[in-house]
Amino acid sequence: MLIQNLAKPQRGLGIIELMVSILLASIVLAGVVALILNISVTSGTNIKSAQLQQALRGSMDYMSRDLARAGYVNWFEVWARYGDFDNCSNPASVTGSLRDLNDDGAINMLDYHQCIAPVLAQFGTVSLAQFDTAGDVSSGMKTPPECSTDCDCILYSYDHNIEWATHSGDFELFGFRWNEGRLQSRSGAPATADHSCVAGDWVDLTEPVIEITDLGFSLVYFDDVGTGKDATVFPITGGVAGGPSTTCTPGAGGLSDDKCLWRRKVDITLSGHLAADNEVQMDLNGEVKIRNDFFQTESP
């Protein structure tokens, strides 16, 4: 019997083909895993950046809105009620009427000005200060404390409860400062506390997950007012307005009506990073036009 060997076709993959397939699949899988990890890391970084951006921009917006109110006074309450305390009205029981304060025989805006000028002076001042070590209240204040550029702290006030007088208990003596990696706001103080950068009650505006690495306030006056140079002062001497100028001292010329009209803009720089990842950082710049000009009638 003739036995014929018939070659059967090979079924499936050989060992070499199988190893090549596994290698290719591993390469593809590694690429997919790397892509997923990269997307995950990028998403995490974006979330962290968004968290930092939201915190810093929120802080910048809050400072800008509040600083813009500096110097506000409820002038009608001064007119109507100031006499209840300082005999500005005539009679004190009649609201909205003034007496002849300067005894010139007429009741006019000169009397009104004489009535409210002391109150305006309470709210008008905006002052900046610098710590001995930037961002560290415990290091003490530089001497003299006045500062004009890149200052650690700013102080201001406005008539928060619309009743014309500044009171620590009514939280009308405000401020912002940079201290120990935090942005802080002055929230109040005992009645005897000074309105200063090292006194009163201060609260953190930023969470511990955010570290503030720089906070600077600048208020520089210009005599060549123009784009970016909105802060200036107009001296009023002998009833005649001069300026614009960079300096002014009420009464410097020996005249009782030597006064200063200050127009102010504060520049703010704010920088920070995540406390857990200092690679995620951000720098912001802002400027605030203080809406209420300061009519200064006497030196502080």
UniProtKB/TrEMBL annotation:
InterPro entries reported for this sequence: EF_Hand_1_Ca_BS (IPR018247), N_methyl_site (IPR012902)
Keywords tagged on the record: Membrane, Transmembrane, Transmembrane helix
Pfam families named in the record: N_methyl (PF07963)
Annotated TM spans: 12-37
Top-rank taxon: Bacteria
Protein's name in the database: Prepilin-type N-terminal cleavage/methylation domain-containing protein
Organism of origin: Sediminihaliea albiluteola
Taxonomic path: Bacteria, Pseudomonadati, Pseudomonadota, Gammaproteobacteria, Cellvibrionales
